Amino acid sequence: MLSILQILLLILDVVWFIMIAHIIMSWLISFQVLNLQQPIVAQIWYGLNRLLDPIYRPIRRFLPEMGGLDLAPLVALVAVYAARIIITNNMIALAF
């Protein structure tokens, strides 16, 4: 059981890293540090969007429109962190 929880933590860490990379890349694109006209940047950007859209889409349905501000990544980050806390606490409980 402990191994399964550790694998879940690993998956959550990978998702966390991908989400942080997506958020930073969106800022860099918004501030025109990165240009989507460059093929490698566009490939990475659209790849990250395709990976994270299934996570963000249900969250966006519940969030109100905020103009140009998308709060779905923030909500998803908090959810991943909360899941990590829950799994870690269960691992500690299983150890005793």
Which keywords apply here?
single chain, 96 residues, mainly alpha, elongated
In words, what does this structure look like?
This protein is mainly alpha-helical and 96 residues long. The protein is 80% helix and 0% strand. The protein contains three helices and no strands. The protein is elongated. The model has no long low-confidence stretch (mean pLDDT 94).
Write the layout of secondary structure elements.
Layout (H helix, E strand, L loop, with lengths): L1 H29 L8 H24 L9 H24 L1
Helix pairs in contact: 1-2, 1-3, 2-3
What's this entry about, in short?
It is built from three helices and no strands. The protein has 96 residues and is mostly helical.
Please count the beta strands (DSSP E, at least 2 residues each). 0
Shape: elongated
Rg to the nearest angstrom?
A: 16 Å
- Average predicted confidence as pLDDT: 94
The largest sheet, given as strand count, sense and whether it forms a barrel, is: none
Going by helix content, strand content and strand pairing, the class is mainly alpha
Q: How many angstroms separate the termini?
A: 13 Å
Content of β-strand: under 5%
Ranges where pLDDT stays below 50 over 5 or more residues in a row are: none
